[in-house]
């Protein structure tokens, strides 16, 4: 399901056409939002120089026609937003490209930038208001927005995705809750958590791993880091109390401590009761423990354990491992389906090329040697497509029957639907995995403090 909107881009007051084009294209191609530029595609232009190419076409338009468009529109933008969890970023970019090509009929240069910084994946499609031959301008006709939405629905339906259900105006409700926005700081916290789980030897080893991930480190009174997509350094202390230098050093220490003490817990002790007693202030050494651990974290951990009916550290560890493994397996399955879909699309194109150029190729083969060279030059493109298709068919396993286009389309539709289900499940499991890991870390800290108190109490008795 995709919602669309067509926006005319005008020249802002006090700015030139070049400045306005650069600003619009730079925003749409922001590397932080487009996975470092991997989710950008284009037609009849280079994304890096699209602004200058658009501007040049407008100057040629004035020379060819001798007139300037009074509307002062420099380009058009299509925003195409997909339902959360229904589509992958790569597939969204492909659908955005197809929508732009069919809407402009291939007469306008455009760029497609897919943003993943929100819960809903969305495309920013910017196409030049001037045609490729510089003889016309795009006419924003009546109800063009409705036509665009219908075309988007058709593209989504053809590729196996849902379409927007039409509702009467009286039945529509205004959105009041919005998903949390993904930020650079959230990305840094996620990277730091991943590095901690790799169990670095010490603080310097941790910084070394961080540098290998592409982060620049600035040492000083407060250490700061900067990733490839960042414009400024970010201090560890500004990421929250769980990510200060002291807190990270403590996490590194805990990651390297063996679990032997935790594995020797007395059987029959309920983890929920143990943590609840500590949160309520029961037991010796409560005040000393409360100063070293955040009570809010304890409350969150307790609520999480109650929600998932976890009553032992063994169950918590098992469910944490299952969440981590399940997310990895789903991601691997999604990648396998993506690879197979690409193979199907390539094979389907080879079948089309083979069927379209077969007559010319057979005629070429029947000609005498003296006439082949001349015929080849006249039909070079068709013959090369035929030879490429035959070479692709030869790569298929022996005794494998070439599938029909109908069979390939059916398999592709099935894989896309399965991938949609898996991707939605992956997003949920990925979020659950983070919560399980955090609950495990908090429970480990609480239990470790309890064991230290027992050891002190036993030594005092002696």
Summarize the structure.
The chain has 462 residues and is an alpha+beta fold. It is built from 15 helices and 8 strands. About 5% of the residues have low confidence.
Question: What structural class results from the helix and strand content?
Answer: alpha+beta
Whole-number average pLDDT?
A: 82
* Uncertain regions spanning at least 5 consecutive residues: 258-269, 279-289
Main beta sheet: strand number and arrangement?
5 strands, antiparallel
Distance between the termini: 70 Å
Spatial strand sequence of the major β-sheet: 1-3-5-4-2
Percent of sequence in beta strands:
5-15%
The secondary-structure element order is EHEHEHEEHHHEEEHHHHHHHHH
Number of strands: 8
Silhouette? globular
Describe the protein's topology.
Blueprint: E1 2-10, H1 17-28, E2 40-43, H2 50-65, E3 73-82, H3 89-104, E4 110-115, E5 122-128, H4 144-158, H5 184-197, H6 203-212, E6 216-218, E7 224-226, E8 234-235, H7 245-256, H8 260-263, H9 271-279, H10 286-292, H11 295-307, H12 313-366, H13 369-378, H14 380-394, H15 405-461
Antiparallel strand pairs: 1-3, 2-4, 3-5, 4-5, 6-7, 7-8
């Amino acid at each position: 399901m995709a919602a669309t909107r067509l926006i005319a881009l005008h020249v802002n007051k006090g700015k030139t056409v070049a400045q306005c084009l650069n600003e619009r294209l730079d925003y749409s191609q922001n590397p932080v939002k487009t996975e470092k530029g991997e989710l950008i595609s284009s037609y009849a232009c280079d994304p890096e120089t699209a602004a200058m190419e658009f501007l040049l076409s407008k100057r040629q338009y004035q020379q060819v026609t001798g007139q300037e468009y009074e509307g002062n529109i420099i380009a058009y933008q299509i925003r195409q937003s997909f339902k959360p969890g229904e589509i992958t970023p790569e597939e969204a970019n492909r659908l955005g490209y197809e929508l732009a090509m069919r809407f402009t009929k291939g007469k306008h240069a455009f760029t497609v930038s897919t943003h993943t910084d929100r819960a809903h994946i969305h495309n920013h499609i910017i196409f030049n208001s001037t045609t490729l031959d510089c003889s016309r301008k795009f006419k924003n006709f009546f109800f063009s927005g409705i036509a665009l939405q219908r075309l988007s629905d058709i593209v989504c339906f053809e590729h196996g995705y849902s379409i927007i259900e039409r509702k009467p105006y009286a039945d529509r409700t205004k959105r009041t809750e919005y998903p949390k926005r993904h930020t650079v700081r959230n990305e840094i916290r996620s990277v730091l958590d991943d590095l901690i789980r790799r169990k670095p030897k010490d603080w310097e080893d941790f910084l070394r791993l961080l540098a290998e991930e592409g982060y620049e480190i600035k040492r000083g009174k407060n250490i700061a880091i900067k990733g490839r997509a960042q414009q400024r350094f970010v201090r560890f202390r500004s990421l929250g109390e769980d990510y200060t230098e002291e807190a990270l050093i403590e996490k590194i220490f805990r990651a390297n401590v063996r679990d032997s003490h935790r594995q020797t817990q007395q059987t029959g002790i309920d983890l929920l009761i143990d943590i609840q007693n500590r949160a309520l202030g029961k037991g010796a050494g409560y005040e000393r423990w409360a100063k070293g651990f955040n009570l809010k974290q304890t409350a969150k951990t307790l609520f999480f354990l109650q929600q998932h009916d976890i009553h032992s550290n063994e169950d918590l560890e098992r469910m944490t491992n299952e969440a981590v493994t399940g997310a990895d397996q789903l991601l691997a399955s999604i990648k396998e389906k993506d690879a197979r879909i690409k193979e199907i699309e390539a094979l389907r194109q080879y079948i089309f090329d083979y069927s379209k150029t077969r007559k010319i190729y057979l005629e070429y083969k029947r000609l005498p040697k003296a006439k082949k060279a001349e015929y080849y030059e006249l039909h070079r493109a068709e013959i090369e497509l035929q030879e490429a298709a035959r070479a692709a068919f030869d790569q298929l396993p022996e005794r494998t029957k070439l599938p029909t286009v109908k069979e390939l389309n059916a398999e592709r539709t099935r894989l896309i639907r399965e991938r949609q289900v898996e991707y939605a499940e992956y997003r949920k499991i990925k979020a659950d995995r983070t919560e399980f890991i955090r609950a495990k870390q908090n429970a480990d800290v609480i239990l470790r403090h309890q064991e230290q108190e027992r050891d002190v109490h036993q030594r005092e008795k002696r």
